[in-house]
Amino acid sequence: MALINPSILSADFARLAEEAKAVEGADWLHVDVMDNHFVPNLTLGVPVVESLRKATETPLDLHLMIEDPDRWAPQYVEAGAGSVTFHAEAAAAPVRLAREIRAKGARASMALKPATPIEPYEDLLPELDMLLIMTVEPGFGGQAFLDIMLPKIRRTRELISRHGLELWLQVDGGVSDATIERCAEAGADVFVAGSAVYGADDPAKAVRDLREKAEAAAAGAGWACAH
Question: Which residues are marked as active site?
């Protein structure tokens, strides 16, 4: 099953509660937290996440593009996140952090920038509930999808299958009607979509259409047949 997680980075920040309700058919609501240090942009923090949690029944998928996630990630679980993603490039102790996130009741996820290979982290995969492959450089919404990430998605799916893990594989960056099928064929099953959803006339319909395309593409893929 394909999961569609609209990114509120592409929403109207002055109307976050309304924008969250506009996509209540989505599986998760993707929330990008940026600190202007790990990435060159600044977004929202713990108080806004707490408010957003009260404004929607859709579970929150937090993506922490921040320095020192070891310190901050647990606070986002306490703020109401159902899933917290930290970056491999920023975490000092990723296994310990993943276990702490899980112990607090959320799904633990790790993200990799485009230039970061998956292979050095193979032994960490059992500690995670999801792995995020960035298909753009993190920091800004609306970037063009990087096709060169498709082999990395395939290699990651192969590792997940080899170890027999029930690990979600998420992609984030430039996911749209034009790219989601390629991502699904390569092995992704969780899709972050920003402007493809919030730039549509009917965001809820955009979510449904993206899910349908992803599931159709995955159905014919070898990895899904073996899954």
Answer: 32, 172
